[in-house]
Amino acid sequence: MMKGERQQDGLRSNEGRPFMYNGGDRTAGAEMSQSGSVASAAAEFITGAVSQETPPLSRTYFQRAGEQPAFLVLREGQEERPVRREDGGVFRAGPCLVRGEEWLQAPELSGLYESWLFCENDSQAERILQRIGYRLRASTAALLESADGDWAAVTLVYEPQLAQQPAKLAALQDAQLEALFAAVALSQRQGGDSRLDVLAPYPASAAEFAAQREFIEEVAEQTLGHAYAAACRIGALVAPDVSTAAAGEIARIADFLVLDGAAGEAAPEEAAAGFAQAAAEILAAVRRVKPAAVVLAAGAPAASSLADLYRIGLSGIFCSAGQRTEALLRAACLTWMARQDAALGTVSG
Question: In this predicted model, what pLDDT tens digit does every residue of 21-69 receive, in sequence order?
Fold first, then answer.
């Protein structure tokens, strides 16, 4: 039995930590105040306004038995963020999703990455990779100091150019993981309570995910020691075309799943058209294996398919800043209508 599987019981007992949010989050489906209209409820979600009478939200995204499932609208990407946290002045809107490739595209890293990618001298390539690691550590430290610093989910770098060079891809991911966990360790030594959950990109089978998970755990334990289990959860970023059988088996050993609508080369409208159907099939397979599994969606098709994803019972979506306002409004309306239907059903019953 692999190390990650042996730790599952301990992780389940610590479900107060994953996907944290607090009273300022106002994420759709988590807690809706007793607003007089859909518009005022949606406005609360968008502005982060918190009623004095509203009790603080639970800091977990998992639902206790008997509770109404939440549907969360969370952020993807690093754009349009406050640079640093300001106590009382910045509302942290739940976890954010950061793709590892996003950092590689930054001006201070893109040139180094290109040099490393095409370098044919092994010793020189190793030195360049070291510099990439230092830059990634700085990027992680900046994330931990930002308004999202309490919690973020970061995907392992996945570059199509390296698909046929597994050893080179593994070396890049190893440098990224070491940078991520070194920054978390430093934050913890300075008294912070930061965590970075990691997503293994596009496993096609449970065996593939198990290998990725063990790789992540090994680097985390070397960097953070045994404390890593409290600072990191390991999920899977899966493509919509993953087989339903594989998705179910991956879910057995993953702490959470994210269906990536951005995977593939289809045009956005074509991707959105089939995304909800694929999500429904994957979700059904996952819930047969693990009824309480946390399954979210990401990418532009996820926001476009929000109503369908809400209807099938997905846990929520990550979406870009440009899509977030509309997604929050739609989720607020759906939540409000569901509550009205439930209230009418209770009265008529």
Answer: 333 333 343 333 233 333 333 333 333 333 333 333 333 444 433 444 5
Alpha carbons within 13 angstroms on the beta-carbon side of residue 173 total: 27
State the number of CA atoms in the 13 A half-sphere of 198 facing the CB. Answer: 30
Query: Which has the higher per-residue pLDDT, 35 or 191?
Result: 191
**Bridge partners (DSSP) listed for residue 201:** 237
Contacting residues for 16 by C-beta, under 8 A, at least 6 apart = 58, 59, 60
Q: Which residues have a Cβ under 8 Å from the Cβ of 155 and sit 6 or more positions away?
A: 97, 98, 99, 100, 101, 198, 199, 201, 237
**CATH number given to 21-348:** 3.20.20.60
270, 272, 276, 279: CA torsion to nearest 10:
90
Half-sphere exposure of 309 (CA within 13 A, CB side): 35
pLDDT in tens, 261-285: 987 655 555 666 689 999 999 999 9
Distance CA 140, CA 20 (A): 18
The three state secondary structure string of the chain is: CCHHHHCHHHHHCCCCCCCCCCCCCCCCCCCCCCCCCHHHHHHHHHHCCCCCCCCCCCCCCCCCCCCCCCCEEEEECCCCCCCCCCCCCCCCCCCEEEEHHHHHCCHHHHHHHHHHHHCCCHHHHHHHHHHHHHHHHHHHHHHHCCCCCCEEEEECCCCHHHCCCHHHHHHHHHHHHHHHHHHHHHHHHCCCCCEEEEEEECCCCHHHHHHHHHHHHHHHHHHHHHHHHHHCCEEEEECCCCCHHHHHHHHHHCCCEEEECCCCCCCHHHHHHHHHHHHHHHHHHHHHHCCCCCEEEECHHHHHCHHHHHHHCCCEEEECHHHHHHHHHHHHHHHHHHHHHHHHHHHHC
